[in-house]
């Protein structure tokens, strides 16, 4: 089954008084469960708008977004927020940790907005172990490097065991070596947990580590390639 | 915990905001305590003077004195249950230049039978009540005993000698036999003496040219009249005026309305303090609006994790409420402390004007809570309406 299915997605923005810009212009595509997909394109090509529509942060002007077979465009705002909280994880480019919380508390933050369950703390610790930060659970973001912060953000994206993780330029603010490490980490998580990843990037080297590269150009799908690459570090496929 | 961190992280702004609320609540506490004081005084006066008719002399004799011979004709007026002599004179003569913001210190005689009729009750805290026909004894109100630093068994000269006393000023030693429980109203500032002592002091308070022509045993300041059950006292006062010559009976309703000025003053003062509190509320709104603007990215993040608008509203409302409550608690504690200090300092001049009550604490802290919730409402609703798509794109 498709993890994400997008049908004729159009998203318009008002620019100035009368001008309407089409950030997405009839995008139709399908992403299978467990795929590790990169979304590439120049700045302004519609990558973030696409991720926000798929992440249910933005309603499309027209078209449909189906996640796990659910037509999310038919949901109310409250239902979308609930669905987003349960089924979608996010990783952003910018430092996205709350400065007042520890690494562990940041990972547990999404649990605050959903049904109260047990074992959240244990799972958060396991995830921090998984991303290699088991020793830094009580560190606050100010005490972490950018790479460590992004690792915490990745752990946080997975805390509710989502079906889909959308990552918007997650390696945009780190050097190549750190970028490789983060990418490798997400790849490992994708492989072990089966979570679908859609990662927007303008770094073509990053994109070539993926199963599939979707190129957006002026809000339309310019290319959609499935690659046959060995999974592993970017350095290993150069 | 996160909220406390947020408040602590913006220390200067939070401190200034809380400081603004503290000032407002402190002002409200002080003026509220003053209002409570006046209210208690008014209630006590209302309870006493609404339950009887005050009858004064109207025969052109010296003001403030009435002959006890008027008691019999008043007693015969239909509807009168009992007519009793009452005497009241300043305990601190010559201190009129420093008018206290409350009941003045008074030497008083009230017939023991009044206890059966009056709605104003004063119980003994220490010692005993006056005994009939015993002279040289006094029962002091709570504030008066504190003011002069006396206890049961001590001696007190009455009236209190003024600093610039006339050559013919006289006072007499009285033994304190009882001290009343605090009532927050008239009895607190009263030195109760027996009839003979009160008549003697009343006569001595009169001008020399006048006093020698009077028999002290026939004197009272006024006659206090209680009606039979079910009798309309205003109508009974009219009836006394119509049937007993040489007296003026004041309608209880008119009497009570005359001493309502303190309550009006307090209402104005409380209104002013509420303006100060409004200032604190504006500061809090400003702080929370800035916090929302600063934390747009954070709010958007929480929305991506599934936070519903009510989650965001609740978080910001809670933060504003905590700030309001902290400011309220500090302001109330500071106000109550300052009121106690001012009362302590003013005790020597009988300026006991503040009364901190449970009701005042509830109102003040309730208003602080409402201020937090009210001031946090606009910013938190604004936060909940945030567009996460736009906020997450911001650099």
User: What is the number of helical segments of chain A per DSSP (H or I, 4+ residues)?
Assistant: 8
Given as residue ranges, the uncertain stretches of chain A (5+ residues, pLDDT < 50) are: 231-238
The largest contact between protein chains, plus residue counts on each side, is: A-B, 29 and 21 residues
Find the CATH topology of chain A.
Rossmann fold
pLDDT average of chain B, as an integer? Answer: 85
Strand arrangement across the biggest beta sheet of chain A: 6-7-8-3-9-10
Query: How big is the Rg of chain A?
Result: 18 Å
Approximate helicity band of chain B: 40-55%
Strand fraction band of chain B?
A: 15-25%
Distance between the termini of chain B: 28 Å
Structural class of chain A: alpha/beta
Gap between N and C termini of chain A: 33 Å
Specify the biggest β-sheet of chain A: 6 strands, mixed
Structure summary, number of beta strands of chain A:
10
Order of helices and strands of chain A: EEEHEEHEHHHEHEHEEH
Estimate the helix proportion of chain A, in percent: 25-40%
DSSP strand (E) fraction of chain A? 25-35%
Text of the CATH class of chain A: Alpha Beta
Q: CATH homologous superfamily of chain A, by name? A: P-loop containing nucleotide triphosphate hydrolases
Poorly predicted runs of 5 or more residues of chain B: none
| Overall shape of chain A | globular
């Amino acid at each position: 089954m498709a993890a994400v299915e997008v049908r004729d997605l159009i998203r318009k923005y008002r620019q100035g008084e009368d001008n309407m810009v089409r950030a997405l212009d009839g995008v139709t595509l399908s992403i299978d469960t467990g795929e590790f997909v990169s979304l590439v394109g120049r700045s302004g090509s519609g990558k973030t708008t696409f991720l926000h529509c798929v992440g249910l942060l933005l309603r499309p002007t027209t078209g449909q977004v189906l996640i796990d077979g659910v037509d999310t465009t038919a949901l109310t705002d409250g239902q979308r927020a609930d669905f987003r909280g349960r089924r979608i994880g996010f990783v952003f480019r910018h430092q996205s940790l709350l400065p007042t919380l520890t690494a562990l508390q940041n990972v547990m933050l999404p649990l605050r907005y959903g049904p109260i369950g047990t074992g959240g703390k244990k799972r958060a610790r396991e995830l921090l172990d998984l991303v290699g930060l088991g020793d830094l659970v009580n560190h606050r973001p100010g005490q972490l490097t950018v790479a460590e912060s992004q690792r915490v953000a990745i752990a946080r994206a997975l805390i509710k065991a989502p079906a889909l993780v959308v990552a918007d330029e997650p390696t945009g603010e780190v050097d190549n070596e750190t970028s490789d490490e983060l990418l490798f980490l997400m790849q490992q998580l994708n492989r072990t947990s089966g979570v679908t990843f859609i990662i927007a990037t303008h770094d073509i080297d990053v994109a070539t580590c993926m199963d599939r590269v979707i190129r957006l150009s002026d809000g339309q799908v310019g290319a959609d390639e499935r690659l046959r690459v060995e999974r592993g570090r970017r350095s290993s496929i150069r | 915990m996160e909220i406390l961190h947020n408040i602590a992280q913006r220390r200067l702004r939070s401190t200034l905001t809380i400081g603004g609320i503290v000032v407002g609540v402190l002002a409200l506490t002080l003026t509220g305590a003053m209002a409570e004081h006046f209210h208690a005084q008014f209630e006590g006066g209302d309870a006493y003077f609404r339950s009887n008719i005050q009858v004064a002399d109207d025969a052109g004799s010296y003001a403030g004195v009435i002959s006890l011979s008027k008691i019999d004709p008043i007693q015969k007026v239909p509807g009168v249950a009992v007519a009793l002599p009452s005497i009241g004179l300043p305990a601190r003569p010559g201190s009129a230049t420093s008018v206290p913001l409350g009941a003045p210190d008074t030497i008083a005689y009230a017939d023991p039978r009044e206890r059966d009729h009056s709605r104003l009750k004063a119980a003994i805290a220490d010692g005993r009540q006056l005994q009939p026909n015993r002279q040289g004894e006094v029962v002091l109100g709570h504030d008066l005993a504190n003011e002069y630093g006396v206890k049961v068994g001590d001696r007190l000269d009455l009236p209190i000698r003024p600093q610039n006393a006339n050559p013919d000023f006289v006072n007499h030693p009285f033994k304190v036999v009882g001290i009343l429980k605090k009532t927050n109203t008239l009895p607190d500032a009263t030195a109760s003496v027996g009839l003979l002592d009160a008549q003697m002091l009343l006569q001595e308070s009169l001008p020399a040219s006048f006093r020698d022509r009077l028999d002290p045993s026939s004197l009272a300041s006024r006659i206090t009249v209680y009606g039979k059950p079910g009798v309309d006292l205003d109508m009974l006062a009219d009836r006394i005026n119509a049937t007993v010559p040489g007296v003026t009976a004041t309608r209880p309703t008119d009497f009570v309305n005359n001493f309502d000025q303190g309550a009006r003053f307090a209402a104005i003062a409380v209104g002013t303090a509420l303006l100060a509190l409004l200032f604190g509320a504006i500061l809090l709104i400003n702080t929370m609006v800035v916090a929302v603007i600063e934390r747009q990215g954070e709010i958007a993040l929480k929305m991506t994790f599934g936070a519903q608008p009510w989650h965001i509203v609740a978080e910001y409302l809670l933060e504003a409420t905590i700030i309001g409550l902290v400011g309220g608690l500090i302001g109330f504690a500071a106000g109550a402390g300052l009121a106690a200090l001012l009362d302590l300092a003013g005790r020597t001049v009988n300026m006991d004007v503040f009364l901190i009550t449970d009701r005042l604490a509830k109102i003040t802290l309730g208003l602080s809570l409402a201020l937090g919730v009210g001031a946090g409402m606009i910013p938190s609703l604004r936060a909940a309406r945030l567009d996460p798509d736009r906020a997450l794109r911001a650099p």
